[in-house]
Every structure is written in C-alpha cells, then in structure tokens.
Design goal:
- About 45% of the residues lie in helices and about 15% in strands.
- Helix 15 (about 355-365) links the parallel strand 10 and strand 11 (about 365-370).
- The chain folds into two domains: about 1-200, Rossmann fold (3-Layer(aba) Sandwich), CATH 3.40.50.720; about 225-430, NAD(P)-binding Rossmann-like Domain (Rossmann fold).
- Strands 3-2-1-4-5-6 form a six-stranded parallel β-sheet, sandwiched between helices. The chain has a six-stranded parallel β-sheet with strand order 11-10-9-12-13-14, with helices on both faces. A two-stranded parallel ribbon has the order 7-8.
- By secondary structure, the chain is an alpha/beta fold.
- The chain has helices at about 10-20, 35-40, 50-60, 70-75, 100-110, 125-140, 160-165, 175-185, 185-190, 200-230, 235-245, 265-280, 285-310, 335-345, 355-365, 375, 395-405, 420-425, and strands at about 1-5, 25-30, 65, 80, 115-120, 145-150, 170, 195-200, 315-320, 350, 365-370, 380-385, 410, 425-430.
- It is globular.
- The protein has 18 helices and 14 strands.
C-alpha cells in the first residue's frame, strides 16, 4: 500500500518507518525543511533505540522517503495519517489542534482518489469528526473516509511496541475504511495474538486519553503511598510488590519516583480535564492527579535539600535529566523543576545524561555538563539520580566515594538496595524507604 505520514515527530517517524518495514511504501511529510534535509542525509532527529537502522534499511529498500511537499505525497496515497503535534494550548491547557486542522485542509486539496485519512495524533473526542467536516467543506465530493487510530508507543521501546502491540484500536464505522486498516496492519492482523478493537471514532479517541490518564493515576497513587511509607516506616517496594501481584491491579507503573513527565501524560491528562469540564462531566480524579504530580516534582528539590542539610554553596552531581531512560526527550521532565529550584537555593549543578544533554542544554542554564557520571561527581558534595539509565544501575561505589566530598547518594528512582548502600558506607536517601 501507499501511505502518506503527515508529521515526522516521534509518532510520525516511528510509525512511518515501521509501516515501511511491513512492506508498505511510505512518504513522511514535514514542513520543517531542516528536519527533512537531515532525514534525507540519514540523520535521525530523535533518539530511539533501533530507529536509525530501521530508517536506513527501508530508505535503501525504496519503501521510505521524506519530503516537505504534502501536495505531492497525498494524491497517490491510499492511507493518509495525521501525526502532527497536539501540545497544550497556552493559557487554558486544552489540546492545540491547529496543526491537525491545517493538515486536514491541505490533505483535502490533495485527494485524487479514495483514501482513508487517519488521525494518529492524540486528540480530544470529536476531533476526527471535525477533520472530516474540514475535508468535506473543501472537497464536498471527495471519496474519503476519516478514521481514528491512536498510538500507544512508549519512548525507548517504540519499535517493539509498534511491531508487537498490546492492541490496535481503530475508530470507524466504514467497512471500506476497516479493510484499508486491516491491510495496513496485515502482519499483525494475521497474528491472532494481536487484539484489534474496531469501534466508533469517539470511543477510539477517548480510549487513548483514558489509557494515559489511568497510567498517570497509577504513578501518582504509588508516589503518594511512598510518602506514607516514609512517614510510617513501611517500604514502598514491598508495598508495590504486594499490591502488584493482585491480577486486578498489576505491577506495571507502580515504581515510585519524582513524578511523571514526557510528551504524553502531562498534556493528555490536562487536556482530558479541560474537555471533561467543557462537556459537563468533570473528572475530579484526573484533576487531582494533575495537581499532585505538579506539586510532587517541585517537592523533590526540597527532599534533596534536606538530605544535603541545605544546598547553598554546595555542588550537586545530577545523573540523568531526561524524563525516562532510552530517550533524549526533555518534555516535562522532573529535572526541569528540580534543577532550577536547587540553583535558586544556591547550589551549583554538575550533570551528565547519556543522550539528553544537547536538548537539556537548551532548557537549563548554568549547568556544567560533564563527560560521564564520575566526572559529574568529581568534587561534588553528593550525587542525585534523577533518571534510571542502565549505566547508573551498577556504579562503582568505591569510585563514587572517592570522587565525592561526602559519600551521599539521593536516589529518586530506587535503583539500589538499602543493604548494599549501608555495606558500602554510603549515606543513601531514596523514595518511600528509610535512609540508609
């Protein structure tokens, strides 16, 4: 099949590369000429394990191409995906759908034969209908269906998620459109282990928002339980394991930490709150999740300051600044709240991240970026782990003690055990556990 993917951000680029790997001919479109030029040179603008090789292989095979010319990409396509950004709108938190609607208008002008226009961007309920209204207003006689097909890609494991998904959700009541989507996902559709959910566009759109809101709620819940553990003497890792073994709850997303961040949860929970209010069905639970998470990230700086006995005039080594490992994404990362708060309190920051320092350097000023974790620790008064990159999971504790002025480790991801820190003679502060 011939596919046009409008948008080469995280979702569009990964999806386009994976569809081409299924054997389809995909043209990825973006208005950013610089980004398209880089992609044509084989330079991947985001860090995602395995994506560079996947793109290179399919470009070489002639199944994947990049262009700024939407008008040239759409006419031959049987499926046109809208995978543009839907950031939080300034001032009110609603999803900014201007990029989606602009794409719909341009797609309408380029349609030449039957095609399915598919919203893959995360959008509020009713957006796909509006996309269809825009297309039909410009092209009343266009032979087109509009469907919803939300993505469920985790940064750091997106290719695996696309090729071996938990489920494929498709919102359309057109059998013709369903057949196109079945053909697109043919390798997965033939695999009985991949559940396909065909539903209305409205249900499909809400499934995406509800999924992200529920996962954000699990994270926020376990973080609040961690606070209770710290006050009561319980151990959050034991608590998480004890409740996670209940099949009705499950163990995923029960890792206590400094709060959720990234490109999805913050904006999608806020957008859901705003839409719920607008349609007269407020979601108080999600409102609380948004509020608790925002306050938690800010409180983490106080937790660090307490462990250090105050940070004024002290140098703090920070390990990891991205919102999660295996990505260079800094969007709504807890580090964007924690580091400036520590600096405002008088701390000097030395930091290292395996992939995120280029992006972080644009957002965080006054930080001394270092060559590696041990360089960051050199001469520091203590070290803080903000992101659980694998290379931080087996630090040389003897070298850590030798580099630091004080053997102090604040671990906001609970990477280490209390026993190993105690045996190493390191003062250890973590989340939801007694200090070692």
């Amino acid at each position: 099949m011939r596919v046009a993917m409008i948008g080469t951000g995280y979702v569009g680029l990964v999806s386009g590369a994976c569809f081409s790997n299924f054997g389809h001919h995909v043209v990825c479109v973006d208005k950013d000429a610089g980004k398209i030029a880089r992609l044509k040179r084989g330079e991947i603008p985001i860090f995602e394990p395995g994506l560079d090789a996947l793109v290179a292989d399919n470009v070489k095979a002639g199944r994947l191409a990049f262009t700024t010319d939407l008008a040239a990409a759409v006419p031959d396509a049987e499926a046109v995906f809208i995978a543009v950004g839907t950031p939080s709108r300034r001032g009110d938190g609603f999803a900014d759908l201007s990029y989606v609607y602009d794409a719909a208008a341009e797609i309408a002008d380029g349609l030449k034969h039957y095609a399915v226009v598919i919203t893959k961007s995360t959008v509020p309920v009713g957006t796909s209908k509006k996309v269809e209204d825009i297309i039909r207003a410009r092209r009343p006689n266009a032979d087109v269906d509009v469907a919803s097909n939300p993505e469920f890609l985790r940064e750091g494991s997106a290719i695996e998620d696309f090729q071996r998904p938990d489920r494929i959700v498709v919102g359309t009541e057109s059998e013709r459109a369903r057949n196109v989507v079945r053909a697109l996902y043919r390798p997965l559709f033939l695999n009985d282990k991949t559940p396909f959910i065909f539903t209305t566009r409205e249900s499909s759109e809400l499934i995406k928002y509800a999924s992200n809101a529920f996962l954000a709620t699990k994270i926020t819940f376990i973080n609040e339980m961690a606070d209770i553990c710290e006050k009561s003497g319980a151990d959050i890792q034991d608590v998480a394991r004890g409740i996670g073994l209940d099949g009705r709850i499950g163990s995923k997303f029960l890792n206590a930490g400094p709060g959720y961040g990234g490109s999805c949860f913050p904006k999608d929970t806020l957008a859901l709150v705003r839409q719920a209010d607008e349609c007269g069905a407020p979601t108080r639970l999600v409102e609380a999740v948004v509020d608790v998470n925002a306050k938690r990230k800010k409180r983490m700086a106080d937790k660090i300051a307490t462990a250090f006995g105050g940070v004024k005039g002290k140098t703090i080594a920070i390990l990891g600044v991205t919102f999660k490992p295996n990505t260079d994404d800094m969007r709504d990362s807890p580090s964007l709240d924690i580091i400036p708060a520590l600096q405002a309190a008088g701390a000097t920051i030395r930091a290292f991240d395996p992939e995120g320092m280029k992006e972080a350097g644009k957002l965080l000023s006054g930080v001394a970026w270092t060559e590696d974790a041990y360089d960051a620790m050199t001469g520091a008064d203590g070290v803080v782990i903000l992101t659980e990159w694998n290379e931080f999971r087996a630090l040389d504790l003897k070298q850590l003690k030798a580099k630091l002025k004080r053997p102090l480790l604040v671990d906001l991801r609970n990477i280490y055990t209390l026993r190993e820190m105690s045996d190493a003679g390191i003062e250890y502060h973590s989340i939801g556990r007694a200090p070692a």
